[in-house]
Amino acid sequence: MESCESAAAITILSVDDHPLISQGIASVIESQSDMRLVGAASSGDEALSMYRQLRPDITLMDIQMPDMNGIDATIAIRQEFPQARIIILTTYEGDARALRAVKAGASGYLLKSMLRKDMLETVRQVHSGRSCIPANIAMELISCAGSDALSKREVEVLKLVADGKSNKRIALNLAISEDTVKAHVKNILSKLTANDRTHAAVLALQRGIIDLNSPALSAKL
Is the pTM of this model over 0.90? Predict the structure, then answer.
């Protein structure tokens, strides 16, 4: 009887580089008779390798990890296994990376703060073939994809702002005028509803608009 239940259980691969989160996920899954945790990875590279071996029904994928991040891992897995069902885990509601993850083929989206409340139902819905993105998160994603999204050039400027570059230095780096840089910065502050350049950089990092390990930004944080 036990083996039959195990065979029918939803198999899950957990991917997160924070031990406490991984332990929490394992604890919740182990309490369910219709679910079975078959593996736990701590990086995107490891997730891809373990997915190839285990072929889980559901993968719970942290969006921000060292080496290969959750988006790249999602893309890599679905390139090899188009049927893969992946649920993205993130800390921030307004995470622009989530939009890229959904475009990459993720079937679900979960805030880490809501894991104990929503994870089980999300897993079951995604396993049944449905997408599961909460309404408030869907609105955030629409906002990220809408007219207020930063342009490619604005993102380039913002990365240099986050790296502590002055307008003059940014202009030299991008081969544009300093007035153009000022105009881009003004647009960035408006679109992000940021108080100043540092605030814009912090918001962009939190929302996944930029992804960098800048000493200058780390010092500001």
Answer: no
